[in-house]
């Protein structure tokens, strides 16, 4: 496996029978000891970790597991991990709250890739972010506030190139500024999202889709003159709003519209659109 660490504990919640869960709970201590030993080996040998992947089903009290998960993530950060892939699956019948990632994550200066799923991401108490190497941020089913999105895509993550928000919640607006190197943005939006404002002069691809019916949305992308690919799905706006949007993209090469029913007509004049 080299300098990668990957752990995936068994998922007993696929069946509603509680017998597998009881058997699973007996194995949890062994799983914890195994991860502890693996991380300790990296620390003891002063090894630099390339990737830390953890997929864990949290079916016990999250508060009891939080200290264990924080210890593991902290150990990975202290080993200079480059890529973090973390997926916490919660049994909502047992756990009423979602796991909140530790603030040490925002101090991972060597980390260039972050993939998170099924957790909550909150800004550190002093709003200080040191993700100076971060190039790719992928969030799925993550609870995150609009201020956190703005901070992560702003000047405190100057190298960020790829952003993906899929089925996340906790925000009604997205403001992205000072994202000078951001090249791709992919959003599978909650129905509550009503405002998107993006200033990213290097942006080349923007993909926006909704998982259900949503009200009118205001999209401001005047600061994205180099956009080449635009994909919209289940987005509600009039043809005037649509034409106003694409007029910002003189270099647009590819346009994909899917289930944008309110559009009455489309008239496009472009030398670059394929």
From TrEMBL:
It comes from Acer saccharum. InterPro entries: At1g61320/At1g61330-like, LRR_At1g61320_AtMIF1, LRR_dom_sf, LRR_PRU1-like. Residues 49-208 form the At1g61320/AtMIF1 LRR domain. This is At1g61320/AtMIF1 LRR domain-containing protein. Signal peptide: none annotated. Pfam families: LRR_2, LRR_At1g61320_AtMIF1. It comes from the Eukaryota. PANTHER family: F-BOX DOMAIN-CONTAINING PROTEIN (PTHR34145:SF28), OS02G0105600 PROTEIN (PTHR34145). Transmembrane segments: none annotated.
């Amino acid at each position: 496996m080299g300098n990668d660490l990957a752990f995936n504990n068994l998922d007993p919640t696929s069946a509603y029978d509680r017998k597998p869960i009881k058997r699973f709970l007996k194995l949890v201590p062994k799983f914890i000891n195994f991860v502890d030993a693996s991380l300790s080996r990296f620390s003891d040998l002063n090894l630099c970790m390339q990737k830390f992947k953890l997929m864990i089903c949290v079916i016990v009290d999250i508060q009891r597991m939080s200290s264990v998960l924080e210890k593991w993530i902290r150990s990975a950060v202290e080993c200079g991990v480059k890529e973090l892939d973390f997926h916490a699956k919660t049994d909502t019948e047992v756990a009423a709250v979602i796991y909140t990632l530790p603030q040490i994550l925002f101090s991972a200066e060597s980390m260039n890739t972050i993939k998170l799923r099924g957790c909550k991401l909150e800004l550190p108490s002093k709003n200080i972010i040191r993700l100076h190497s971060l190039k790719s941020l992928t969030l799925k089913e993550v609870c995150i506030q609009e201020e956190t999105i703005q901070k992560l895509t702003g000047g405190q993550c100057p190298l960020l190139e790829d952003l993906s928000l899929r089925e996340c919640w906790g925000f009604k607006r997205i403001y992205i500024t000072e994202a000078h190197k951001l090249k791709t943005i992919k959003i599978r939006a909650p129905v509550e999202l009503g405002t998107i404002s993006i200033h990213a002069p290097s942006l080349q691809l923007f993909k926006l889709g909704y998982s259900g019916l949503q009200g009118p949305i205001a999209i401001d992308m005047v600061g994205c003159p180099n956009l080449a690919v635009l994909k919209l799905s289940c987005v509600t706006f009039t043809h005037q709003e649509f034409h106003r949007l694409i007029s910002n993209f003189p270099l647009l090469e590819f346009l994909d519209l899917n289930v944008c029913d309110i559009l009455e007509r489309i008239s496009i004049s472009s030398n670059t659109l394929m």
